[in-house]
Design brief:
The complex is a heterodimer of chains A (322) and B (210).
Chain A lengths: L1 H4 L3 H27 L5 H29 L2 H22 L7 H20 L3 H22 L6 H24 L12 H26 L14 H17 L8 H29 L16 H23 L2
Chain B lengths: L2 H17 L2 E4 L9 E5 L6 H8 L2 H4 L2 E6 H4 L3 H10 L3 E3 L16 H8 L3 E4 L17 H8 L4 E8 L1 H4 L13 E4 L11 H13 L6
Parallel strand pairs in B: 1-7, 2-5, 2-6, 3-4, 3-5
Antiparallel strand pairs in B: 6-7
Helix pairs in contact in B: 1-2
The chains are: A mainly alpha (322), B alpha/beta (210).
Chain lengths: 322, 210
């Protein structure tokens, strides 16, 4: 794969496009072929679920590709909007009170845009400390001013946690564009793609393994499908995809493998955490369909990325010592 | 496209961005039949939410009720309710007109229904903030009696009190749902109170659906 590395940026972009959408088209064709056979009702239901997932994957891939190809502004805007929808779903799931109104307005209309402006203007230090320092300070102040002591710590903690996951975590994906890595000018966008693809690979690998292996779940009350074996399979799938993509990254093959595994593992564990949260909020239907007030399940899909992005971002920084 | 149409589309877009404004149809379908939707009322945002949850072609023939004194007070309020929503104006007080006779406050609604339009009404009469809707006022009964052919669709609006609590002006983005239920009809010889309680129960029964 050494010669792939020597290709120009536009050649690499074209190649990735063919591979990514070729794979998706292949899966779609195979799924369609299978749907023509006679199936039992249970199998039909499974196929339908798969078809919904596949459609979401197509939509996500197209959307991501368009914004990714349109440059830094496009990707920053895309992740900004995804953050907005994820935070909206998070707030819907948590029980906020009237007194939280101002704090929530601050979160949606000041903090979220601010964080992405900081990403867009390449203010690396400000972007790193804005939410853990300044927002952490501002949210409880605004909440306390609303004059409602009922479950105060719980309410402010939930808002802060939601912002940290859906805004701070997510914003680390477009922030990869900021990193000025040695010998890797103008190619930060490939890192974003790398991150998204390894996280998706980890999800698919884990899902597939948990269906096939039927291992004992680690935490039955939270997830019936999460087992260490399936988790390992997810991280392994991410590592393999990481190596296969090493030619678009600034890493050596072995480092690409490790980075893929780290991001994949973080993403899978993040999804596991999000499942615990949904159980707490009383949502039975974890994927697709309408659940609480028609929450569309976007949070489920992007949570792995929210958890993986900061870990990946700082792993890359650590690896290059910047 | 005219200005009110564009403003309407923009408003529906904002409502969807903020609340998702998902319409769920359980027991009825979004068809262009003449209907009265009756719903629980918790926020100024309720009407916009129902309106945004309706399919585009139904929005044009579905009209809200607006208090004349409040919604015609400034040119902007008047323009929004008249041009975008095509609201039916009602007077809150029973004003004596020249002949010394009471004007029936339901008369503008009856007029709109005779004209073939659909209506959205909030039979509680005022915005509530309790978990359960207040007892329904009798206007719904009078309309059901006068127009037996118009479908009465119970409607439950979920979560909107969190979007914009009473006294706040900026909405917080939180997902809401609007559930449209199966139509109810006035039974022959049904008592007014019994019918209103049944209508309220039909709205509340939609709570668990989403």
């Amino acid at each position: 794969m050494g010669q792939l590395r020597a290709l120009t940026v536009s050649q690499q972009v074209g190649l990735l496009f063919v591979v990514l959408f070729g794979l998706l088209a292949l899966v779609t064709i195979v799924a369609f072929g299978r749907s023509l056979r006679n199936l039992s009702p249970a199998q039909t239901a499974q196929r339908e679920r798969f078809a919904i997932e596949l459609r979401a994957l197509w939509l996500g891939a197209l959307l991501f590709w368009v914004s990714w190809a349109s440059g830094p502004l496009g990707s920053t805007l895309l992740f900004g909007f995804v953050s907005f929808f994820a935070l909206r779903e998070f707030v819907t799931l948590t029980h906020t009170r009237r007194a939280d109104h101002r704090a929530l307005l601050l979160a949606f209309f000041v903090i979220l845009p601010m964080q992405y402006v900081l990403v867009g203007t390449s203010l690396l230090n400000a972007f790193t400390v804005f939410i853990p320092v300044y927002v952490f300070f501002a949210i409880p102040v605004i909440s306390a001013l609303a004059n409602d002591p009922f479950r105060f710590l719980e309410r402010t903690a939930k808002i802060q946690w939601g912002i940290t996951v859906t805004v701070y975590g997510m914003s680390h994906a477009p922030a990869l564009l900021l990193l000025d890595l040695p010998g890797y000018h103008e190619r930060g966008a490939f890192l974003v793609l790398f991150l998204v693809l390894v996280v998706v690979a980890a999800q698919l690998g884990q899902e597939y393994a948990s269906r096939r292996l039927r291992r004992r779940p680690v935490a039955r009350a939270i997830s019936r499908s999460f087992s260490w074996r399936a988790f390992g399979a997810g991280a392994g799938a991410a590592a393999i995809v990481g190596v296969l993509l090493y030619w678009v990254t600034p890493f050596k093959p072995l480092a690409a493998l490790a980075m893929g595994a780290i991001a994949g593992a973080a993403g899978t564990l993040g999804e596991f955490v999000m499942m615990a949260l949904k159980r707490d909020a009383g949502v039975r239907n974890l994927r697709g369909g309408s659940s609480v007030t028609g929450a569309v399940g976007l949070l489920d899909r992007v949570a792995p990325l929210c958890f993986a992005a900061p870990v990946f971002f700082h792993s890359v920084r650590g690896y290059f010592g910047i | 496209m005219t200005l009110p149409e564009a403003a309407g589309l923009a408003l529906a877009f904002v409502a969807r961005l903020v609340t998702g404004a998902q319409g769920h149809w359980h027991g009825s379908t979004p068809k262009a039949e003449q209907r009265i939707y009756f719903a629980n009322h918790q926020s100024h945002f309720d009407w916009v939410l129902i309106w945004a949850a309706l399919p585009h072609d139904l929005r044009a023939v579905t009209r809200p009720i607006a208090a004349r004194d409040y919604w015609t007070a400034t040119p902007l309020k008047h323009w929004i309710t008249r041009e975008i929503f095509n609201a039916v104006y009602v007077s809150r007080q029973r004003a004596k007109d020249g002949s010394g006779e009471d004007e029936d406050p339901l008369e503008p609604l009856m007029e709109a229904l005779r004209h073939g339009d659909s209506l959205v009404i909030f039979p509680e009469g005022t915005r509530g903030h309790a978990a359960e809707p207040a007892p329904f006022k009798s206007g719904l009964f009078a309309l059901a009696e006068a127009f037996p052919d118009v479908q009465l669709i119970p409607t439950w609006i979920d979560n909107v009190q969190r979007v914009m609590p009473k006294g706040e002006v900026v909405p917080v983005p939180i997902l809401c749902a609007v559930v449209f239920g199966a139509p109810i009809a006035l039974a022959g010889g049904e008592d007014r109170r019994a019918f209103l309680d049944r209508a309220r129960a039909a709205v509340m029964a939609l709570r668990g659906v989403v």
